[in-house]
Amino acid sequence: MDFSFSEEEELFRKSVREVCEKKIAPHGREMDEEAGIPSEIIKDVGELGLLGIMVSDKYGGQAATFTKAAIAAEEIARADTSMSVAVYYLVEAAWGFLFERYAVEKAKEEILPDVTKGRTFLGIASTEASGGSDIASTSTTMVRKGGRLLVNGAKTYISGVREAAQYGGGFVTVVKTDPASGHKGLSLCYLPAKEFPGVTVSTSRQMGREGISNGFIKITDAGVPEHYLLGEWNEGFYYAMEGFNCARPLVAAACIGAAEKVLETGITHIKQRKVFGTPIGKFEGIQFQLAENYARLESAKMHVYKAAWMLDRFYKEEKFSRGEINKAVALAKLVAPTAAFDIIKDVMVWHGAYGYTKEAGFERALRGVTSYLVGAEGTMNIMKIIIGKELLGKEFSPI
User: Fold this and answer.
1) Domain assignment present for 364
2) Above 70 in pLDDT, residue 35?
């Protein structure tokens, strides 16, 4: 049993942190208030080889492990605790990996090189008005017609709609291809978003993560090329679940990155801030809270990197069952966002009135991690259902 990172991984972390602190951190408030990630940041992240990081080098990626991908997610979120750049990064990392696994060669050659160079955006479109976690209730349809895939429907609360529409790119999209078969009647396709006939996007304002857009996709008789089908017809539910398993550890890694940065700021503050002539870090009410938060953060890290380690072996060595992966990934996604939220909230309180100001920056982090509590990449209750199902057996699953 080895809990250390390799020398290569440590060097990778150092290089990513240096670039992120220099190129991303100074723009945190600007991105949140002006609602956009500067193109220079996307360029810098792309030049570092982080966009589509797990895509093979044939298409411009690094063929990175899940462990390295998680390290990058953690470091990016340390630099931008609002999670905006982290969201841009992690959806491309996870769904780029899935795209390469299931797309045909023509589609991979057409789409992935532009994604890894930062020229276009690749996202995931699964959520609909009926809900996000229950993708079996997807109402967006796709049929074969005239040599193309005809798509109709709508997607809601999708990250990156403005970026895809303006700069090019599209979304791995969940569609219903056999309405009578429930979750066994879903497929995946790539849906272009920039000036594609039948596809229109609109944006909405979120509580947080304002640096990356969020919004809606309306799809009316969009004739998607046949080679944009991902994998086999009616197998989309299983591919989507696999994609979420790839994304969730990166989400959790980003949460611990933001929480770690905020907690470090909090430690500095309670060592320096005095009341009644005494640093507040000497008071048990603060010190015990710090110890508890540190313990939760370290626990979350263990879950995150264990899940990443297991995924690396699942794909390369075919170790672990699908159920073991489901449980490990859900544990990471369950523990990290809740721990991050509580840590950021406590540090905000330690700072008193200043903690409540925009200048302090804690509210950006609090708003950012909240998105992963309410539903992005799966709600907390869905994570509990997944864990319960793996512990008790599928006959005990309520869904």
Assistant:
1) yes
2) no
Q: What's the CA gap between 9 and 15, in Å, rounded? A: 10
Task: Assign residue 215 the CATH number of its domain.
Answer: 2.40.110.10
Contacts for 65-69: CB closer than 8 Å, 24+ residues apart: 65/308, 65/312, 66/246, 66/249, 66/307, 66/308, 66/309, 66/311, 66/312, 66/315, 67/5, 67/9, 67/305, 67/308, 67/309, 67/312, 68/9, 68/12, 69/93, 69/250, 69/308
DSSP states along 305-330: HHHHHHHHHHHHT--S-HHHHHHHHH
Sign of CA dihedral 273, 75, 250, 65: negative
Residues 276 and 201 in one domain: no
pLDDT > 80? residue 180: yes
Chain center to CA of 75: 14
Decide if 248 is inside a domain. Answer: yes
* Residues belonging to the chain: 399
pLDDT digits (tens, 9 = 90+) for 71-98: 999 999 999 999 999 999 999 999 999 9
Domain that holds residue 30: 7-120
Antiparallel, parallel or unpaired: β 141-145 and 148-159: antiparallel
Least confident of 47-56, 130-139, 299-308: 130-139
Kindly give, in sequence order, each residue whose CB lies less than 8 Å from that of residue 390, ignoring residues fewer than 6 positions away: 323, 324, 326, 327, 330
Q: Is 1 a domain residue?
A: no
- Regarding whether 141 and 66 lie in a shared domain, the answer is no
Asked whether the whole model's pTM tops 0.90, one would answer: yes
The reply to whether 130 and 63 lie within a common domain is: no
pLDDT in tens, 147-163: 899 999 999 999 999 99
**Section 235-243 average pLDDT:** 95
Residues 211, 307: one domain? no
**Same structural domain, 384 and 258:** yes
Q: What is the dihedral of CA 243, 307, 83, 206, to 10 degrees?
A: 50
Across 225-242, average pLDDT: 96
Reduce the DSSP state of residue 172 to 3 states and report it.
Answer: strand
